[in-house]
Specification:
Elements (H helix, E strand, L loop, with lengths): L3 E7 L7 H11 L4 E7 L5 H9 L5 E4 L13 E2 L1 H6 L4 E4 L5 E4 L2 H8 L11 E5 L5 H10 L4 E5 L3 H10 L4 E3 L4 H4 L5 E4 L23 E4 L8 H8 L3 E3 L2 H16 L7 H10 L2
Helix pairs in contact: 1-9, 4-5, 4-9
Length: 274
């Protein structure tokens, strides 16, 4: 039997631990498959989609900056992908239709948002209007948080997102330090803080004491902002749990097995981030 081949596409993609996650589960469930990193340029997106369509690849994950750019080369969006116009998982269904789904929404809900009490009374701020932002906004909405603001360095991107989510409040990047004390939940949906990259330049000094800060980044496990907030006794979450849960759902879509998230897996992932 031919060994199945899966991959994650993005640019850059070297920071991703998706191969570690999925290859662990392939081994655990005795599935003849391998998962790799594919650093892909935008001009090659169509040819990558063709490789799934012809069976050369059995499935794909999609990371920055292609969660929207891959859509023209997919036949059908389902569920959360349709609601967010953002795709992170691709597979060929039983009718040979190339399908795009979004498991980031599930990942965020399963990892963090299920723990939030009295959600409808909370005010949330999403920092960033890029690839994962629609998933973050929709996950907040599904958790019944309706007071959601967005802030992004490029104002036009925030306006574009408001066309999809008309209830959004748009803030100016320059006003963040003044506005930051108004929010109960802040989610970083940018790449700021990513390993070897730049971090936030504004102050988090005035956040509420009971504020929750969620970072969608997991490499490094602790960004400078996360470290600062933890030292100031603010409840924080890094992006590792979200990463694991979105991967769990992708794995199920490809293999119809709901893989276990066990201590051995978590320890393996954490060891790769030290």
């Amino acid at each position: 039997m031919k060994k199945k081949s899966f991959a994650i596409i993005g640019d850059p993609v070297g920071h991703s631990l998706s191969p570690v996650l999925h290859n662990y589960w392939f081994k655990k469930y005795k599935i003849e498959a391998e998962y790799s990193l594919l650093n892909v340029k935008e001009k090659d997106l169509e040819s990558i989609a063709v490789r799934v369509r012809n069976g050369e690849l059995s499935g794909l994950n999609v990371t920055l900056p292609y969660k929207q750019k891959i859509i023209p080369f997919i036949d059908k969006l389902i569920n959360d992908a349709k609601s967010t116009n953002s795709v992170n998982t691709i597979f060929l269904d039983e009718t040979n239709t190339l399908v795009g789904e979004n498991t980031d929404v599930f990942g965020l809900q399963a990892a963090y948002l299920k723990e939030i009490n009295e959600a409808k009374n909370k005010k949330a701020l999403v920092i960033g209007a890029g690839g994962v932002s629609p998933s973050v906004i929709f996950a907040l909405q599904k958790t019944r948080i309706n007071n959601i603001s967005i802030i992004n360095r490029t104002h036009e991107k925030s306006i574009f997102l408001k066309k999809k989510f008309d209830f959004l409040n748009i803030l100016n990047w320059s006003s963040l330090t003044q506005e930051i004390s108004n929010f109960d939940i802040i989610i970083n949906a940018t790449s700021l803080g990513l390993k070897n990259g730049e971090d936030f330049e504004f102050s988090f000094d005035d956040v509420k004491n009971n504020m929750i800060y969620i970072d969608t980044i997991y490499n490094p496990l602790e960004t400078k902002t996360l470290k600062y907030l933890k030292e100031n006794k603010i409840k924080t979450f890094n992006g590792l749990d979200m990463f694991i849960y979105q991967g769990q759902k992708s794995f199920y879509l490809w293999n119809k097995i709901n893989p276990e998230i066990d201590d051995q897996l978590i320890n393996l992932l954490v060891s790769k981030l030290k």
